[in-house]
Write a structure and sequence with these properties.
This protein is mainly alpha-helical. About 65% of the residues lie in helices and about 5% in strands. The protein has one domain. Strands 1-2 form a two-stranded antiparallel ribbon. The two termini are about 35 Å apart.
């Protein structure tokens, strides 16, 4: 399952999304996530689905590669559905002893599942089509106004980019350690919760040791290259907006307006939740 985590990975391809300015992709991703929490009706989610399909199709990243990352959140998705399905009060449509499923529970569980799937896929498009260096430059450019408040913009952007870059590396390291422990007789899948928790100790200790060692090596390498923050640094490839970037912003604004109007029921629609 660990190898199925696609967050933080970069998928090289020749597409319009890959060529977009990283600032555009960051803004689009953030706006799309916010829109998912603004809408609460089926028409709004249908529009979000169309927008996401267009976003994924233009990226030219195989859909199977993105869906592979959904395996890592399957348990979270299942818990979200179960809690909303059985713990939401309302009009009962199924009753068995103390188990009650309501009409409102089915509706909320379905919409929450769709929201979570859209959120993960939408975020994956950004990381799969943007290199870590581009992410760092994009985040730093977007947070530049915070410099007036003496906020360490460059350092925070660098830290977030390194964290994303190290996700697949740590997952690969975890997979290797787990296989090595299983070859020595470790069992991570059977027994109760307490036994499984104790079985994770031989996995977590070497993982933390490896992570701290990698962090130390990275810090030493940055110091050897005379890295002292972002003051006075120039960029090899400065960010510049192109026509396609402005077009992406226009399409984003149109999507947000329609999503809010449809998702809040301002515009009548035949399909309503």
């Amino acid at each position: 399952m660990l190898k199925d985590i696609t967050l933080g990975q970069y998928y090289p391809a020749e597409s319009v999304i890959h060529r977009l300015d990283p600032r555009v992709k960051l803004v689009v991703t953030l706006a799309f996530i916010i829109s998912l929490f603004l809408v609460n009706r089926i028409p709004g989610y249908l529009l979000a689905g169309v927008f996401l399909c267009l976003w994924v199709g233009l990226s030219r990243v195989p859909l199977s590669f993105m869906l592979r990352g959904m395996k890592a959140i399957f348990l979270l998705l299942l818990l979200t559905i179960v809690f909303n399905l059985f713990l939401t009060p309302g009009e009962a449509i199924f009753t068995w002893q103390r188990v009650v499923i309501t009409k409102e529970g089915v509706r909320i569980a379905s919409l929450m599942a769709i929201r979570l799937v859209f959120l993960i896929i939408g975020s994956s498009v950004m990381t799969l089509t943007t290199t870590p260096n581009q992410l760092t430059d994009g985040m730093e450019a977007l947070m530049r106004p915070l410099k007036k408040l003496h906020f360490p913009v460059h350092e925070v952007a660098m830290m977030m980019s390194i964290a994303l870059r190290f996700i697949p590396i740590l997952m690969e390291e975890t997979d290797k350690i787990m296989k090595a422990q299983m070859a020595r007789g470790a069992d991570f899948e059977t027994g109760g919760i307490n036994r499984r928790a104790r079985a994770l100790v031989p996995l977590l200790v070497p993982l933390f040791v490896s992570a701290f060692r990698r962090a130390g090596d990275l810090a030493m390498a940055m110091e050897a290259r005379c890295y002292h923050g972002g003051d006075g640094r120039t960029k090899l490839k400065p960010l510049r907006y192109d026509r396609r970037d402005y077009l992406a912003y226009v399409l984003l604004v149109l999507y947000l307006v329609l999503a809010v109007l449809l998702g809040r029921g301002v515009i009548p629609f035949t399909l309503q939740g």
